[in-house]
Amino acid sequence: MAGLIEARLEALDLELPEAKPPIGSYVPFVHTNGQLFISGQLPMKDGAMAIKGQLGGNVTLEDGQAAARLCAMNVLAQAKLALGDLDRITQLVRLSGFVCAAPDFGDHPKVINGASDLLADILGDKGRHTRIAVGCSSLPLNAAVEIDAIFAID
Q1: Residue among 77, 66, 73 at smallest CA distance from 21
Q2: Is the pLDDT reported for residue 53 higher than 80?
Q3: pLDDT band at residue 23, thresholds of 50, 70 and 90?
Q4: Residue pair 117/81 in contact by the 8 Å Cβ criterion
């Protein structure tokens, strides 16, 4: 039987992607002392980078928000792989969002809202979190957005 979080995913007509292995010398997650740390996730879909480039350049705010949502789904896919059951999540503690942005772009929070809002929809009150939204000049594989997360788990 699917848990509550997976039932919410289904109700939202969302399907978790397959958790992908890291692209560098790191692990995709670590759980310790009641916390699950998820490494940075990119807006990958079907094995390819779905949204590339720079906000304020060739990437629109709406596409940046879509990229953040893809990153959030990839975060949850890693959490599912790590925990086996997403209902072990007791709280999303921290979300860190990195936005590849042109120097004059200032809507980083609006971009990362794509992930924050989706995770709140999926996790309910457990999805309310602290957050940073940071701009940078480039990200791995020319991704538009990268997101990592820290969860409290049982």
Answers
A1: 77
A2: yes
A3: confident
A4: no
Alpha-carbon gap, residue 108 to 85, rounded angstroms: 31
| CA 5/CA 122 separation, integer angstroms | 6
The separation between CA 110 and the C-alpha centre of its own chain, rounded to angstroms, equals: 14
Token pair belonging to 70: 């893809």
Q: How many CB atoms neighbour CB 125 within 10 A?
A: 8
Structural element, H or E, at residue 122: helix 108-123
Q: Which two tokens stand for residue 154?
A: 């049982």
- Report, in angstroms and rounded to the nearest whole number, the Rg of the chain calculated over CA atoms: 15
pTM score, whole prediction: 0.96
DSSP structure class, residue 38 = E
Report the DSSP pairing between strands 89-100 and 130-136: parallel
Mean pLDDT of the 16-28 span: 94
Say whether domain 4-8+27-153 belongs to CATH 3.30.1330.40: yes
**Minimal CA–CA distance to 28: which of 67, 103, 83?**
83
The domain segmentation of the chain, as residue ranges, is 4-8+27-153
Convert 52-86 to b/e letters by CB count within 10 Å (16 or more is b). Answer: bbbbbeebeeebbbbbbbbbbbbbbbbbbebbeeb
